[in-house]
Amino acid sequence: AQSVTQLGSHVSVSEGALVLLRCNYSSSVPPYLFWYVQYPNQGLQLLLKYTSAATLVKGINGFEAEFKKSETSFHLTKPSAHMSDAAEYFCAVSVGGTASKLTFGTGTRLQVTL
Amino acid sequence: SQTIHQWPATLVQPVGSPLSLECTVEGTSNPNLYWYRQAAGRGLQLLFYSVGIGQISSEVPQNLSASRPQDRQFILSSKKLLLSDSGFYLCAWSGNNGGQPQHFGDGTRLSIL
User: Fold this and answer.
1) DSSP assignments along chain A, one per residue
2) What are φ and ψ of residue B111, in 5° steps?
3) pLDDT given for residue B31 in this prediction
4) Which of A10-14, A101-105, B108-112 is least confident?
5) Chain B residues with CB-CB distance to A102 below 8 A
6) Which chain B residues are within 8 Å of A101, Cβ to Cβ?
């Protein structure tokens, strides 16, 4: 079975600083990997996805993530944080199949300070 | 484009009362459909998923049930709510090819008194 570990339940950065949210996965087959963002009392919005094409994936809102098979990682980065980036971020893994079931990490809450 | 609708947005119910949450998808056909629960301070727990009309798979034993009476309609139900059923319920859809991302509704905040 696949799993995802998000290191750090809370991350705080200053506005304009680099954002780095960590995600490590475990999967016995080549995975599909996703990052989602959730604002308070809203559903999850897809930021980006890795589906075995380019290892560096660019998403919306200036975020990107790099798939590193040797490290089983899919960390999310953004060069310069904005106040509007404050939200909860979830990493998720799927091993495909008709059902496309996702296994989510426990989430990382990003705080952006002035 | 595809859209997903969930209602109601918030719901307050007494213990022991029934529940019906509805989710509909527009702009796509034969989607996979999912129900998740998100408890306070925790991640998402997959409750049910469906790959077709009348096909429901349950991920965890619980007090809830799901039905898919039409291709783009997914309903979450309970005959008698428990306090532990409180949480944020999210519906999602995906394409039916492997590795598709899921797209989420805005959720229903359910409070049990």
Assistant:
1) --EEEEE-SEEEEETTSPEEEEEEEE-SS--EEEEEEE-TTS-EEEEEEE-SS-SEEE-GGG-EEEEETTTTEEEEEESS--GGG-EEEEEEEE--STT---EE---EEEEEE-
2) -115, 130
3) 94
4) A101-105
5) 46, 102
6) 34, 46, 49
